[in-house]
Specification:
The chain is of the alpha/beta class. The chain is built from 10 helices and 16 strands. Belongs to the class I-like SAM-binding methyltransferase superfamily. RNA M5U methyltransferase family.
């Protein structure tokens, strides 16, 4: 992938872009093999490669410049303002979307926030697109409600110019700290959810729900987990009870579960649970229960284990207390999806009663040293 910003050293966010993509993928595979070597895994499966550009369907842009000449991008290490509206990581439709966002900033007089002076209102533009429908979700992160009335007044113009805009909201982040978003979300459109579909499984994204930045790779990840579960059933016999901890909008659990199986999904975000419940209903899954709870607290309070436990924790990993509860509960099978191989290795060391059977790397974040890993573990008898 060629990027003019990287070539000019204006933006080095894709810090591996100077390496050929095959070299990037090989280095990630080698790093993963080294981290997991103490656990004597079977040979690692071949990594799942990414497209080299146009793969990110979620953008997080700092609002910079002025009302008359807004910039969407970053401030780099040289304190330069860099407009990334033409970043090749995004699909082609994003460039036109960013142009409309800039026009709206001017029209609604949304003053970009100045960190040093602590003046201005607009902090970030957060933009997501459904690969399935092509529709968009746009979020304005503001310091206060001072510009809310202006956004509401001019929003009909933006919707008329941008028919693909499905959901628009304002997020309030009043703190001067470098936080991406705050707790309060004000949805301004009739539609409150952005519909996505991966492998014929409907998923619904709310403004604050977590979802992978790369839907193609997410689809491959979920489908692989489902395939491994089917193989387990064919080889080891049926299992009836599945837990999906840190379930988000239900991507893993809804892919894995058959109508006769019981699924319990646990996620701390209520909006994500509501989305997962809607998807389950559309799929006709009646033995499904999604609950708004802390995953670690749920496991700690549980006495009976599932047959298959699925976990997809944040970058910090499971942590020792949850690993200890997993060992205590002793589910026969564990599917662990990780976005941080370092914390994955720490958790595997704590899961003392489990043998690592399968490992596969999914290159969710091309041109960087980050990646996703799917593992399958079996409890030692």
């Amino acid at each position: 992938m060629h990027c003019a910003h990287f070539a000019a050293k204006r933006c080095l966010s894709c810090h591996w872009l100077d390496k050929p993509y095959t070299v990037q993928l090989n280095e990630k595979q080698q790093q993963l093999a080294s981290l997991l070597a103490p656990f004597n895994p079977e040979p690692l499966l071949e990594p799942v490669a990414s497209a080299e550009q146009g793969f990110r369907y979620k953008a997080k842009m700092v609002a910079l410049g002025t009302v008359d000449e807004p910039v969407l991008g970053i401030i780099n290490n040289q304190a330069e303002v860099v407009d990334l509206s033409d970043c090749p990581l995004y699909p082609p439709a994003f460039a036109a979307a960013f142009t409309l966002c800039k026009a709206f900033i001017r029209r609604a007089t949304l003053t970009p926030y100045d960190i040093a002076a602590r003046r201005g209102e607009l902090k970030f533009i957060l933009l997501s697109q459904s690969r399935h429908s092509g529709r968009f979700m746009l979020r304005f992160v503001l310091r206060s409600k001072n510009c809310l009335a202006s956004i509401e007044k001019h929003l009909p113009w933006l919707l008329a110019q941008w028919p693909e805009l499905e959901v628009c909201s304002v997020n309030l982040q009043p703190k001067a700290a470098a936080l991406l978003e705050g707790e309060e979300e004000i949805i301004l459109t009739e539609q409150t959810l952005l519909a996505e579909q991966l492998n014929q499984v409907p998923l619904y994204l709310t403004p604050q729900s977590f979802f992978q930045t790369q839907p193609v790779m997410a689809a491959a990840l979920y489908q692989t987990a489902a395939d491994w579960a089917v193989q387990l059933q064919q080889q080891q016999g049926d299992f009836s009870r599945i837990w999906d901890l840190f379930c988000g909008v239900g991507g893993f659990g809804l892919h894995l579960t058959k109508p006769a199986q019981q699924l319990t999904g646990i996620e701390i975000a209520p909006a994500a649970i509501a989305s997962a419940q809607r998807s389950a209903a559309e799929l006709g899954l009646s033995k499904v229960q999604f609950q708004t709870l802390d995953s670690a607290a749920f496991a700690a309070a549980s006495a009976q284990a599932p047959d298959l436990l699925v976990v997809n924790p944040p970058r910090r990993g499971l942590g020792k207390p949850l690993c200890q509860d997993i060992v205590r509960l002793a589910p026969r099978w564990l599917l662990y999806s990780s976005c941080n191989a370092q914390t994955l290795a720490q958790d595997l060391a704590a899961l003392t009663d489990y043998k690592l059977l399968k490992v596969q790397l999914f290159d969710m974040f091309a041109h960087s040293n980050h990646y996703e890993v799917l593992t399958l573990l079996q409890r030692r008898v």
